[in-house]
Amino acid sequence: MALSKRQRSKVFRGVQYGVLVVVLIVIALVADWGTIKRAFFDFEVMSKLFPDVIFIALKNTIIYTALGFTVGLVLGLVLALMKLSPVPPYRWIATIYIEFFRGIPALLVFIAFNFGIPLAFQVRFDNLTTVTIALAIVGAAYMAETIRAGIQAVPKGQIEAARSLGMSQGRTMATVVIPQAFRIILPPLTNELIMLTKDSSLIYLIGVQYEQLELTKFGRDAMNQYRGMTPILIAGALYLIITLPLGYLSRRLERHTGGKKVS
Fold it and tell me: I need a surface site. Which of 201, 203, 214, 237 has the fewest CB within 10 A?
């Protein structure tokens, strides 16, 4: 007797679950749990990481991300308005910027600002300024496209109604369009914040003092010092403390805005 499509789907899922259970059993039997505990769950090493991993590494990660996101959001808004401008040179400049910085790794931007610009212009920024500018430049390229899509998603009727009340184009954009656009794009902007949180780890390229360490660099230095993966595990857990609530917030905001997509 032939199985229905639903029955075949149930059988297929059952086979998948069975394979997963078998794999987990095999891993549990062959794993050297003593070595795993020493490498990843060394509580003596964990105790030595605190409180610095919180009050230095986690704090700096949040500061770098917040500054980069704030500056990047402002720059992204300017770029989005330039790309929507009726003036062709503004559109060209914004398009070139966005395509360029979306097309290269953030790693190269950090290298350029820490080594290239000082070499070319004899100007050197402090580490906080370098991280803020590098994160903002990268984030702005992505946020500009998100903001542009949000502005274009605002119903045309809202703009026409504002203009019919005698509002200028600039006032209409500032008081009607942009506020509504930001309500639409809050979920993708939250995702950009998560991306910048992870990109802040690139600060290791510029060389920082102990008081300026963020989570990844702190974890790498501690891993080399204690010869184990416990510091990396702690750093990863703290990243999740930042990113998981942000991911949850993004999903809630998307539901609250009716799941309206921007593209």
Answer: 237
Residue type at position 212: Q
Structure tokens at 169: 């184009």
Q: Assess contact for 180 and 138: CB atoms under 8 A.
A: no
Cβ proximity of 126 and 206 under 8 Å: no
Q: Which helix (H) or strand (E) holds 235?
A: helix 230-256
Single pTM value for the model? 0.85
**37 half-sphere exposure, CB direction, 13 A CA radius:** 5
